[in-house]
Structure formats: structure tokens, C-alpha cells
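Lecture notes, part 5. Sequence design as translation. It can be helpful to think of inverse folding as translation between two languages: the language of shapes and the language of residues. The source text, in C-alpha cells, appears below.
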């Protein structure tokens, strides 16, 4: 069970090791007092669903001949069992089984089906009262911990998946969650898996707030963006050292690989949050450079006072995307990344879009390694595309974009400099490689941050300088002299939050 455990590290924390051994029928079972209450988890059919799903996820990411049909057979059997009375009397295994089915379906590139299964898992969690841990103090401590782990896992996975696609979450909102007094903060004494999921769950509140604001308002104002970035920075400052440590070789064993993947998932969530919070500044800057008409000039003049901050925050967005791309390429280079990473591929695609978009601005102060970071996203997605059609689609989208960029940049090459940005740091590095100057890339100091420094989140519809254009897609295509393949690129993956925010029609992006 090493493969599914490693693949979901940092996203799901559903089983203790002894529970997995029990599912596999191993003789060394835990002590009686360690086992959760029998009424909650011992139904054989429900246990079989969890076992089949772990086997399906393991086969899905291994990538050997015959593994994908085998994975689907396991999934089909689990699905059949899950609907044979499984929903009439939900238990903890109901919630675990359906979130595992959602995880599998994301890996199988069936995102709508995955959301349906995830919705069942979140409702099962609500029925079981997992969000009200203070109401179940009489339960054994081990079962309370199990309920808390399942609740955090479902909440985190729900927010992560919903934020990627810009959809509303299904789980109970944070303001309605009632936890035991001992459940706050990141537990530095738990297992690494529990620490990573707990840290991610804490961050999910901020991430969900960013997406909600972007969805409801279409764009983030300066004050809201700055507030979100401060929340992100405060959260990253509380991470235990174990979540920022790296793995520099692939021979460390299953436990080291699981630890590294968990850290990568935590770091990617951080980078994605920063990208979402600053994306609008990058779009605003690039589009104002691409369109020098009177309306754009007037808008630029009106915002002259904030021009320096906007450029700074655009650089923060590029930084976050580049850090993510370099980290993932280092993970690939060290043999950490598995063949099918259902969430990582979407995060990396968002980073690739940001990096590619930043290269449109030849006058911007992006460093030479931004182009290298963009190539790194292509390399990792090409690898993931061997087992994931969705990752292959992402790779083709970015490849088409890259070809159009090369044509554009030949016509408008320029010297580039760099100055440090204050809002993002390299959270995790897995090696020494990864592009021009990555070892010394843009080191940050969080001391001396101006209190009035301004940010805006990626969810903001934020490119409000394109007055009079029919759509952002058409304008970028015109500026690039893009071929029909690039037009095809812009229409792919419309459900993805970052893609839709970059290429949505201008009348949806312009803010009053």
C-alpha cells in the first residue's frame, strides 16, 4: 500500500498503519485499546470498499502494463459495494470510501464524477458530525483522533479541488465548525502525514476565502489582497521544520518518498495561494504592455501611483510559479514524483500558464530563469502525461503557448533585470538543479515590509486595462500572431480557475 499512501500524502490522512495492515489481513493487529469503536468501522463490506480503492489508486499510479484496467476493476468493485446499502447507514468508512473514490476519479481525469463522490463524502462527514468534535467528548480518544483525521482530510481535499476549478466547496464552512480545544494549531508531535494534512487544512480556510472573494466580486481590491498575503505569510511561518525538509535522492525508501510528496503538496498549496492572490497584477501589467491604445494609456495614468506596487506584485506571482515549477522539476529529477499525481498536475499547469504569460512582457524585470522554469513545467507535465490524459492535455496547451511565445519574443527581445519581491519565499527545495540561477533565486527578507504594501489575489478578474477589446483571448492571439493551434489552446481546460481567469472575456474581467 506504499503507492496510494505516498500519492495522497499531504492531502489525505485517513488510515493509521495498523488499520492498513488490518485491511490487508496481516496477523499483527493493534492492541485492543488502540482500535476505534467496532460500531464505527468494522463492517466487512465497507472495509472492502476502502481496500479496493487503495488498490485501485496504487495500480493507477504505478504505470505498469495492465495496471489501468486492473485499477478500474478494483474501482468498479468498490463502487458496486458502496451502493449496496452503504448510504442508508453512513459510518466513518462511508466517508473514507467516497473520498478515496473521488481521489481515484481525479487521477482518472473524471473531474465531474470526482466532485459527485466528494460531495457524498462531505455529506457523510456532516451526517456523522465530524465538524462538531466538541459534541463527542465521551468517545474513546483513539476514535476522536480518527474522526478528526477524516474530517481534516475531507475538508482539505474539498477546498483544494474546488479552488483549482473555481467551484464552491461542499463541506461545512469553517465558521460553523466546532472543535475540541486541543485540536487547534499544527501538531508538531504527530506523524508527518498528520502534520502535513493539518497544516494544509489550516491553510484551506485562507485559500477558500481567496476563491470565494474572487468568485463573488470578480476581483480583489488592494486591501483584501494584502490581507490574504499576510495570512499566507503568517501560516507559512508556523510550519514545522519537518514540512520544509527536502529529499535529495530517490533511494530513501517508501517513507522518505511519502514525506517528500507530502511536503511538495503543502508547498504547492502555498504557491498556488500566492499565485491566486497576485495574478491580477501580472495580467494588468502584461496587457497594458501589449495594448498601447488610448484607453490603456489613460488607465495606466490613472493608476500611476500604484504602478510600482503592481509591478512588484506581478513579480511575486511569477516568483511563486517559478518556485513551484523548479521544485517539481527537482522532484522529478530525484525520482520522487510518481506517475499519476492527480492534484499536482493541475497546480503545475496553473504555474505554467503564469510563467508563459509573464514572458509576454519583454520589458518586465523577470530573471533569466523564468524561461527555464517554464520549460521545467513542460518537462514534468510531459512525464505525468504518460499516465494521465489530463496532464498530457496540459502539456499540449503549454507547448502550443510556448511555440507562440517563441515567435513573439523573436520580434521583441529585451534585456531583463531583477529586484527582490517581498511576499513569497522558496518553501521547499528538493535538489540543486532546476534552471538558471535557481540556487540563488530572489532571496526574500520578510523584515522591513512596508505596512501599506499592496497585493491583489488571483481570483480578481483583474486585468482592468483592456478597454475596448472583445476578449482577452483575441487580444493575446493578435499580439502573439498566434496560429490556430494557440486558439485551440485558449479553449482548453476552461474549468480551471487560473486558466479561466487569464483568458476570460474582457467584460468579465474589467472592474469598475
Amino acid at each position: 500500500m506504499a503507492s496510494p499512501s505516498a500519492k495522497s500524502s499531504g492531502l489525505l490522512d485517513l488510515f493509521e498503519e495498523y488499520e492498513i495492515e488490518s485491511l490487508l489481513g496481516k496477523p499483527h493487529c493493534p492492541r485492543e485499546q488502540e482500535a476505534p469503536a467496532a460500531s464505527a468501522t468494522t463492517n466487512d463490506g465497507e472495509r472492502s470498499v476502502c481496500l479496493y480503492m487503495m488498490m485501485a489508486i496504487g495500480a493507477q499510479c504505478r504505470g505498469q502494463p495492465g495496471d489501468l484496467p486492473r485499477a478500474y476493476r478494483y474501482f468498479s468493485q468498490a463502487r458496486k459495494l458502496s451502493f449496496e446499502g452503504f448510504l442508508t447507514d453512513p459510518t466513518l468508512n462511508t466517508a473514507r470510501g467516497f473520498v478515496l473514490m473521488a481521489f481515484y476519479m481525479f487521477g482518472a481525469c473524471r473531474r465531474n464524477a470526482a466532485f459527485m463522490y466528494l460531495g457524498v463524502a462531505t455529506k457523510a462527514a456532516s451526517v456523522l458530525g465530524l465538524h462538531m468534535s466538541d459534541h463527542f467528548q465521551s468517545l474513546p480518544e483513539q476514535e476522536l483522533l480518527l474522526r478528526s483525521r477524516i474530517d481534516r482530510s475531507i475538508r482539505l481535499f474539498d477546498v483544494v479541488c474546488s479552488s483549482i476549478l473555481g467551484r464552491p466547496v461542499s463541506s461545512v464552512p469553517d465558521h460553523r465548525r466546532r472543535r475540541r480545544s486541543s485540536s487547534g494549531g499544527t501538531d508538531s508531535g504527530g506523524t508527518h502525514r498528520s502534520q502535513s494534512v493539518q497544516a494544509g487544512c489550516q491553510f484551506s480556510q485562507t485559500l477558500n476565502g481567496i476563491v470565494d472573494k474572487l468568485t463573488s466580486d470578480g476581483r480583489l481590491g488592494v486591501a483584501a489582497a494584502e490581507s490574504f498575503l499576510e495570512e499566507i505569510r503568517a501560516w507559512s511561518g508556523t510550519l514545522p521544520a519537518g514540512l520544509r525538509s527536502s529529499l535529495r535522492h530517490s533511494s530513501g525508501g517508501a517513507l522518505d518518498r511519502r514525506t517528500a510528496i507530502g511536503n511538495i503538496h503543502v508547498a504547492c498549496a502555498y504557491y498556488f495561494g500566492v499565485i491566486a492572490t497576485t495574478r491580477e497584477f501580472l495580467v494588468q501589467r502584461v496587457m497594458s504592455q501589449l495594448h498601447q491604445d488610448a484607453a490603456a494609456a489613460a488607465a495606466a495614468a490613472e493608476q500611476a501611483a500604484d504602478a510600482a506596487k503592481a509591478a512588484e506584485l506581478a513579480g511575486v506571482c511569477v516568483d511563486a510559479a517559478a518556485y513551484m515549477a523548479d521544485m517539481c522539476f527537482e522532484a522529478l529529477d530525484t525520482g520522487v514524483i510518481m506517475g499519476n499525481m492527480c492534484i499536482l498536475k493541475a497546480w503545475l499547469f496553473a504555474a505554467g500558464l503564469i510563467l508563459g504569460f509573464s514572458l509576454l512582457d519583454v520589458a518586465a524585470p523577470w530573471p533569466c530563469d523564468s524561461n527555464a522554469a517554464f520549460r521545467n513545467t513542460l518537462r514534468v507535465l510531459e512525464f505525468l502525461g504518460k499516465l494521465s490524459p489530463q496532464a498530457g492535455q496540459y502539456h499540449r496547451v503549454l507547448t502550443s503557448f510556448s511555440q507562440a511565445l517563441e515567435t513573439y519574443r523573436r520580434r521583441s527581445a529585451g534585456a531583463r533585470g531583477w529586484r527582490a519581491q517581498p511576499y513569497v519565499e522558496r518553501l521547499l527545495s528538493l535538489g540543486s538543479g532546476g534552471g538558471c540561477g535557481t540556487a540563488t533565486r530572489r532571496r526574500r527578507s520578510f523584515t522591513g515590509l512596508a505596512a501599506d504594501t499592496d497585493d491583489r489575489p488571483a481570483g480578481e478578474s483583474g486585468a482592468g486595462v483592456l478597454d475596448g477589446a472583445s476578449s482577452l483571448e483575441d487580444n493575446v492571439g493578435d499580439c502573439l500572431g498566434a496560429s490556430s493551434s494557440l486558439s485551440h489552446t485558449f479553449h482548453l481546460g476552461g474549468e480551471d480557475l487560473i486558466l479561466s481567469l487569464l483568458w476570460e472575456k474582457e467584460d468579465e474581467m474589467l472592474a469598475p
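The translated text above is only one of many valid answers, since several sequences can fold into similar shapes. The two ends are 53 Å apart (CA to CA).
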